[in-house]
Amino acid sequence: MNTNYRQLHTDTLQNRFGLRVAARLSAGTEGLPHDVGERLRVAREQAVARRKQPAAVLRQRAAIAASRNGNTATLSFGDDGLGFWGRLTSAALVLVMAAGLIAINVIQDDDRTMEVADLDAALLTDDLPPEAYADPGFLQYLKTGAQSAGTSR
Fold it and tell me: Whole-angstrom Cα distance, residue 36 to residue 44?
């Protein structure tokens, strides 16, 4: 059995079940007051109007709803009409963004390395007593001293 036949068979069975339930509900309303019966009839008609729609319509509605939501971005390779060049362009943009993030990471790592190297050079070239290296505020002093020396140049 193929998938379309199974889906059609399932839909047919669900429709039959819905019709049997509706008939049973209609038969049970004979003893009710007229206004209650009318409200139930209208509710049943509304339920039948809103019954399950074909899957293609539901997918289309879901795609429209997702694209109308302003705070969400979706990446879909379904039947979106992009074609080969649209997909290639999308993939190229993702690769460019990834390369940009990697470049930012490398630059930041280089900056941190240069700061540590400047601090080490200041420690090794300065004439200080050994007790100064044990002082907890010494590292902060070196950082502020390196910053003020860098701005006075």
Answer: 12
Which one-letter DSSP state was computed for residue 42? H
* Start-to-end CA span in the chain (Å): 82
Place of tokens 């649209």: 86
C-alpha 69/C-alpha 72 separation (Å) is: 6
Per DSSP, 51 falls in state S
Under DSSP, is residue 96 helix (H, G, I), strand (E, B) or coil? helix
Residue of higher predicted confidence among 137 and 5: 137
Model pLDDT, residue 39? 84
Look at the pTM and tell me if it is higher than 0.70.
no
d(CA 61, CA 57): 6
Residues contacting residue 118 through CB under 8 Å, at least 6 positions apart: 146
**Cβ–Cβ < 8 Å for 120, 143:** no
